[in-house]
Amino acid sequence: MTELQREAQKVIRKSSARELEKLNKAGLTDLCRELSEVLSRINNRILTETEARVKLEIEDTRKELANVKKDRARIAEKVQSLEDEVEQLKIHSPNWGGKREGAGRKSSGVKRFSRVVICSSREAEAYKKYAKAGNETSFESVLRSVRKDEIGDVKKRYLYLSLDEWERVKKIINSRKSR
C-alpha cells in the first residue's frame, strides 16, 4: 500500500468515526425517547391499576359501612321490640301488678301482704336474703318478694322493709292514690 492509500483510509476512518458518533448520538436520543415513552406507558398503567384497586376498596368499604348501618338499625329494632315485649309481659304478669287478661279474672294480680314488718336495714337485708323470690335482690323485687311462714295451716305473707324503703313504698302508694 502506498502512502496515499494509507492516508485515504485514515480519512475514511475519521469520517466514518464522526458519522458513527453522530449516528450513536442520534440513536441514543431515539432510544432514550423510546424508553421514556415506554416508562410513561408503564407508569400510566400502574396508576390506572392502582386507581382501579383503590376505587374497588373504597366501594367495598362503603358496602361494609352500609351493612353495619343496616345491622345497627336491625339491632335497634330488635331491642325496641324486646323492650315492648317486656312491657307487655309486665302488663300481663301478676307479679308486676298489671291487669291480667284472660281467664276472666278481675283481680289486679298484685301480691297481697298480711303484714308489713318495718325493721332495721340490717335485719331487712337478712330477711330479704332469706325470703327473696326468684333469686332477685333489687328493691322492686323486694316489693314482690314474699316470705311464707306457716303457723298451723295458715300461711301468712310478710314483707320486711327497712325504714328508708318503707318511706319509698309510702311515696309510691301515695302517688298511685293521687292518680
TrEMBL record:
Q: Which domain of life is it from?
A: Bacteria
Keywords noted in UniProt? Coiled coil
Q: Which residues form a coiled coil?
A: 51-92
Question: This chain belongs to which protein, by name?
Answer: DUF4337 domain-containing protein
- Please tell me the species this chain comes from: Anaerovibrio slackiae
Q: What is the lineage of its organism?
A: Bacteria, Bacillati, Bacillota, Negativicutes, Selenomonadales
